[in-house]
From TrEMBL, chains A, B:
InterPro entries noted in UniProt: HMP/thiamine-bd, MTH1187/YkoF-like, Thiamin/HMP-bd_put_YkoF
One Pfam family matching this protein: Ykof
Signal peptide positions on this chain: none
Gene3D superfamilies: 3.30.70.930
Name this polypeptide is given: Thiamin/hydroxymethyl pyrimidine-binding YkoF putative domain-containing protein
Location of the Thiamin/hydroxymethyl pyrimidine-binding YkoF putative domain: 4-83, 124-200
């Protein structure tokens, strides 16, 4: 199943190019397992979720660690019917038959409890879109239940859910939401905004 | 039908707060026709597409006009089944029965030809998501045909389509894509990135 993201990093600083170039070194450990293409709007990362989410996490954490207000914006997708499959996307997330919702819920919580803590605080606002028909509302509500128990749930907003907490836990939570809800072979997307060091009061 | 967007403006400058505060005056003509709520991640705009898209256009143009590299990111949504209707969202876009695809295509092109030209160049990358079943792939392909004839089509990318041109024409194109494709009462969303003044070569 084809999976990946179009990502953009926005440091709110005159030296935004410097912050971005410096943060890119955080992608080094992942480069062999991702296809990466950049233009003036976004960088394409093609690869399995278990590589994609840690790569986005480490890129964002590196930029956030400078103390500059910065945002990672990403359009994350799996199973788009218009995209050809790619061997680099082979993922352990979607092997075997789909487990019952309650079991996936429990597995997602366990994965979040085992997430690395990076000691970088951030917020993540996102929308999960499950395309196609069938039981997709059950899946959405199952995902929301998981998010509320994940330890990072901050609030529901119109069109989106807002999480906050340690960046390592946040990206683990996002990976679980993306992989464990919606049909294993279905078309699922996330519209993500991760933000750190905002001067606005929360 | 409930419609609106969660939007964020990212000026890549030390004085990002000043650029944002100054650009916000561009929303003044629209404030009475929108519900607006802001937190540390995004600003919610609730209102009909014919107000929403010009408001986003003018906010973004005002920031872009400073010459600073800036990005407007938006999660735009209509017809989400989890959102209650709101009188402020009453739109002329969705009155009457849905016309045949060819007719909507022609109407969309006519609307784009009549769009105001702002003399601010920008690029817009977006994904259109049509939730639910039925003829949604016909609608997506119909929308892509329209985009290719809109005069702003730059290229297809994985997960997204990239447009470029005058900001007035771009936002008119986005409004038409959002309103004229997908079921009139359906759940349709756009994940938008509009960018201006990037130092990266295109």
């Amino acid at each position: 199943m084809f999976s990946g993201a179009q990502i953009s990093l926005y440091p709110m600083a005159d030296d935004f190019v410097g912050v971005i170039m410096s943060a890119l070194s955080a992608l080094a450990p992942y480069r062999e397992r991702l296809r990466i293409e950049t233009d003036d709007v976004s960088t394409l990362l093609v690869g399995p979720p278990e590589v994609l989410f840690p790569a986005m996490r480490d890129l964002f954490s590196a930029a956030a660690g400078t103390g500059v207000h910065c945002v990672l914006s990403a359009a994350i997708s799996r199973g788009c019917p218009g995209e050809p499959d790619d061997a680099i996307c082979q993922s352990t997330h979607f092997e075997g038959p789909s487990a019952p919702l309650a079991e996936r819920h429990a597995d997602a919580l366990a994965a979040v409890r085992g997430a690395p803590v990076l000691d970088v605080f951030s917020v993540a606002q996102f929308s999960l879109y499950v395309m196609g028909s069938g039981s997709h509302m059950d899946e959405i509500y199952g995902c929301i239940d998981f998010l509320k128990q994940s330890g990072t749930f901050e609030k529901s907003k119109h069109f989106a859910t807002k999480l906050s907490g340690d960046t390592g836990v946040l990206f683990a939570t996002l990976e679980q939401a993306f992989c464990r809800f919606g049909p294993p072979e279905g078309h699922v997307t996330i519209d993500l905004t991760a933000s750190a060091n905002s001067p606005s009061a929360r």
